[in-house]
Design a protein that fits this description.
Residues 4-144, 154-285, 291-429 form the CstA N-terminal domain. This is Carbon starvation protein A. By secondary structure, the chain is mostly helical. The chain has helices at residues 2-26, 35-38, 50-61, 65-73, 79-105, 111-119, 121-154, 158-174, 181-205, 231-238, 247-256, 265-290, 294-301, 305-352, 359-376, 381-409, 415-434, 444-466. Helix 6 runs antiparallel to helix 7. The protein is globular, with a radius of gyration of 21 Å.
């Protein structure tokens, strides 16, 4: 378990060292009034304490992604944990920090408006469509996954739980943020804490499952996946929410509207991503150790990560403890699915310039979203998950380029966003060109070369476009 504990330690060091550096580059202003106070409306702009905002942010972003993603990623062996650490510190947490703090600096605006301001109107229109589609896919994924686990846990109909979760999502989407989300999430957080700490302790003290399979340095570059999915670039699409995830860019503005002071930003946004990375590491380690390695994991998973969750939880913690742990896993997607639909409603409200203080107007936008979501739940989960993964990372790419453009405009160290933006651009373009099911089916070498060239081209065009232009400091006033 030395490798696992080292990875957790590196994430914590990353928060205190690199997180502080990112905060310094951004340049916080403790005296500036946040949108929570400047635009209080009692519905979406509601001041909340630092601890509560952090907990809600963590639960918002930590859906089924940091569990199912790392379990699927564990099929690649130790490289999965390495990507979680590097991706989380230098890409994911940076992405989350800027998506949150740029929203704070711009009156709590959603990611499409931020993209429009710093990248242009075309980026805004593209992001409006793309972010709404992503949030719908997230909502559907985060209905199907917990409903399936609840069905497995209770023996009752999965369709029954789909209906119950749908009703909860609708209520949570339209009521003021502090009425359900602000009150229930502390309880949900306790379940999450039990799941994370309980499983970690049980894994370490277990005489049968306490060791991760041995590995050599070459295993970090060798494709160990028995399904013959290429490590590059599939690993970086598979493990999204535990390393870097565009879904988080749609969630951070929710808490940007509730944060009381800019000094809380590193703890809330950067820190929540580090917390999610630790959850991802826990499940990656469980997947590899409980089933004795990649081959055993592939057999035990049987194509559905939910099987791993159930078997490992009950196997490590017994019937009662396993029930509580699975319940904690179920809570994660539910607490992200409700805010996914809420974010979609707010993005559409900004697009149509429709104030959301009145309930009928909130219903006018929420009900069509849920009708489309209900239709999408009939699509095969595996298909939805693949489209979600690509859409998710493409959204992350656009958010990272938005943050890079912001730093360029303000003559700050843009490389902290530009480098991860270039890497993720290469990943997404390569995956789309190489994939036979979702893309063009081109050879990997050609796909990779084109992906890298596109990343450098975008970076060059961005620098040329912004360099020398007057800096827009309206949000700094």
């Amino acid at each position: 378990m030395t490798w696992f504990l080292l990875c957790v330690g590196l994430l914590l060091v990353g928060y205190f060292v690199y997180g502080a550096f990112v905060e310094k580059v951004f340049g916080i202003n403790a005296k500036r009034q946040t949108p929570a106070f400047a635009q209080t409306d009692g519905v979406d702009y509601v001041p909340m304490s630092k601890g509560k905002v952090y907990l809600i942010q963590l639960l918002n972003i930590a859906g089924v992604g940091p569990i199912f993603g790392p379990i699927l990623g564990a099929l690649y062996g130790p490289a999965a944990m390495l990507w979680i650490v590097i991706g989380c510190i230098f890409a994911g947490a940076v992405h989350d920090y800027f998506s949150g703090m740029l929203s704070v600096r711009n009156g709590g605006q959603s990611v499409p408006n931020l993209a429009g301001k710093y990248l242009g109107k075309s980026a805004k229109h593209f992001m409006n469509v793309f972010a709404t589609i992503l949030l719908l896919l997230v909502g559907v994924v985060f209905i199907s996954a917990p409903a399936g686990l609840l069905g497995k846990l209770t023996g009752l109909s999965v369709s029954l739980f789909v209906g119950i979760i749908f009703v909860y999502y609708l209520i949570a989407t339209i009521v003021p943020v502090d009425k359900i989300i602000g009150r229930l999430y502390p309880f949900f957080g306790a379940l999450l804490l039990f799941m994370s700490v309980g499983l970690t302790v049980a894994l370490i003290v277990s005489s049968e499952h306490s060791l991760l399979p041995g590995f050599e340095a070459s295993d970090f570059l060798t494709n160990l996946n028995p399904n013959d999915m290429p490590l590059w670039p599939a690993l970086f699409i598979t493990i999204a929410c535990g390393a870097v995830s565009g879904f988080h860019a749609t969630q951070s503005p929710l808490m940007a509207r509730c944060m009381e002071n800019e000094t809380n930003g590193r703890f809330v946004f950067y820190g929540a991503m580090i917390g999610e990375g630790i959850i991802a590491l826990i499940w990656c380690a469980i997947a590899l150790s409980f089933f004795g390695g990649v081959e055993g994991l592939a057999t035990g998973m049987a194509g559905n990560p939910a099987n791993v969750v159930y078997e490992a939880s009950t196997g490590l913690l017994g019937a009662v403890g396993g029930f509580m742990a699975v319940l904690g896993v179920i809570i994660l997607p539910i607490t992200s699915g409700d805010t996914a639909f809420r974010s979609a409603r707010l993005i559409l409200a900004e697009f149509f310039n429709m104030p959301q203080t009145q309930l009928p107007k909130r219903l006018m936008l929420a009900i069509p979203l849920f009708v489309i979501g209900a239709i999408l739940t009939q699509v095969d989960f595996g298909v939805i998950w693949r489209y979600f993964g690509v859409a998710n990372q493409a959204t992350a790419v656009l958010m990272l380029w938005t943050a890079s453009a912001y730093l360029l405009r303000h003559n700050k160290l843009h490389w902290i966003c530009t480098i991860p933006a270039m890497f993720m651009t290469s990943v997404v373009v390569t995956f789309l060109l190489n994939s036979a099911t979702l893309g063009a089916g081109l050879p990997m070498t050609i796909s990779t070369v084109v992906g890298v060239l596109v990343a450098f081209a975008v970076a060059t065009l961005l620098v040329i476009k912004i360099k020398g232009k007057s800096v827009e400091l309206a949000e700094e006033a």
